[in-house]
Amino acid sequence: MRLMTAFSSQPWLASYADGVPATIDPPTQTLVEMLDVSVRRHRRRVALEFFGAETTYAELGDQVARAANALRKLGVRRGDRVALVLPNCPQHVVAFYAILRIGAIAIEHNPLYTERELRHQFEDHGAKVAIVWDKVAGTVVGFPRDVGVQTVVSVDVTRAMPLRIRVALRLPVKKARDSRTALTVGRAVAGAVAWSTLTDASRINRRVAGPELGDIAVLQYTSGTTGSPKGAILTHSNLRANASQGEAWVPGLRPGMEVFYGVLPMFHAYGLTLCLTFAMSMGARLVLFPKFDENLVLDAMRTTPATFLPAVPPIYDRLVTAATAKGVSLRGIRFAISGAMNLPIDTVTRWETTTGGLLVEGYGMTETSPVALGNPIGPSRRPGTVGVPFPSTDIRVIDPADPTVDRGIDEEGELLIRGPQVFSGYWNRPSETAEALLPGGWLRTGDIVRVSADGFVTIVDRIKELIITGGFNVAPSEVESVLLSHPSVADAAVVGLPSLSGGEDVIAVVVLAPGTTLELDDFRAWAKSHLASYKVPRRIEVVDELPRNIVGKVLRRVVRTNLLDG
């Protein structure tokens, strides 16, 4: 039996939570129109909160209109690219929607990137205007002329904080100086225009021709774990559809009454959709954090408790530990959505016991705006899987070597996804677009999965990270899971390195639990009792920590490079 035949009836629909539809209506609003609706419906409600400073939806709408007018005065027009290099802050939200309001394209960047990493992306997209955190504005100002940046707008995030905090940051004490230095350069940046000066001087102009549904809204760069980063083209329709799918997926959400915590970086696809679009579509209060700090989150929980928390597994673990130690209640967080990496069942148990709410895992990619699958919000959820397809989303599982051959139920193969949230291609990369998108709109994910008869998907591993040793395929995540069950191992990454005999050797890099030691020969013998001999690491290295991306996912590519260079 082939998967297409078995899944033609979409058996996963039987596992949907009550009230979740099989399909969503095609989007009729651009992201700009979506925000306008929330501004009209929730004018007096708080849209953004930043260290206690509140911005209502009416104020947000005015600020977006003012900033859009300022960008037009800088020469930004429909279809132009505008770079954003910002942490989570109110100015980020305003700038994002201001760019979209005039039909331009927002391009998100990680402000912690090195000069080389940022420059590579700027050379790729060619934005002439960049709105940049003042901490890194000097880097962008210093780009060579041929990179193409003509105007750099510098943002001091502390200007969005309450006056009492801004005053405290200027106190002549070390703690205040350190906090201020971490947030701002505290002065004008040579060669840049100050965001506050630009927007304060601009008038509100709502008579600007906006974008259409099919227009590009965002260029979102992929993490580059399988090569150099590429700009995924996401339209207004893609992103609006994914926000609608999210609204449909979580029954019981109350428009205008939810409190979302923005602990995920909004320059990442996960944070962008869950915070910049989904939260705003719901008329939610979005509490922003410039970076994840459990103490800041717990302080906010005392005054403005979250009801919805999208995050990654390490954040949930750290919050439970810190809240228990400090006696802070996490009750009231009804929904928590985890992504970007495997969600351990122990983490689910701890979180749900502590909060009384639900923690479920989902799956997505930058190329799917990003969410495509999720565990049902209810008793049918299945920890250990990434759930089932979202409304209006189809899946297939194919032979990675031959996309025309479908795999059967519970057979391993590459996951394909089709739905309204699937991107239209990579910026200026036609050959790579053709490799990623198959006829019929199917996206090749590069993930090896198994799918049960009722449609629940279990991730096995990335195709490009599979280790081929002695003719056998080894999934790094399987070996890592075993190694992590050893009491002396706190963290682990498994990669393949070229073998003298051809193929690859399985190599493990581990971080020891505090206060433990590891006898490597004994450890390999222990691993052999849990794994087939060809899966047992030929070599084991002990390190202090593993490289991770901004959302905490281990970068196996970097681990492998470090081993080769070392």
From TrEMBL:
InterPro entries found in the cross-reference section: AMP-bd_C, AMP-bd_C_sf, AMP-binding_CS, AMP-dep_synth/lig_dom, ANL_N_sf, ATP-dep_AMP-bd_enzyme
SUPFAM superfamilies per the UniProt record, alphabetical: Acetyl-CoA synthetase-like
Domain AMP-binding enzyme C-terminal residue range list: 478-553
GO molecular function list: ligase activity, forming carbon-sulfur bonds
The AMP-dependent synthetase/ligase domain, residue ranges: 37-427
NCBIfam families named among the record's database cross-references: PRK05605.1
PANTHER family (UniProt xref): AMP-DEPENDENT SYNTHETASE AND LIGASE, LONG-CHAIN-FATTY-ACID--COA LIGASE
UniProt name for this protein: Long-chain acyl-CoA synthetase
Organism: Salinibacterium xinjiangense
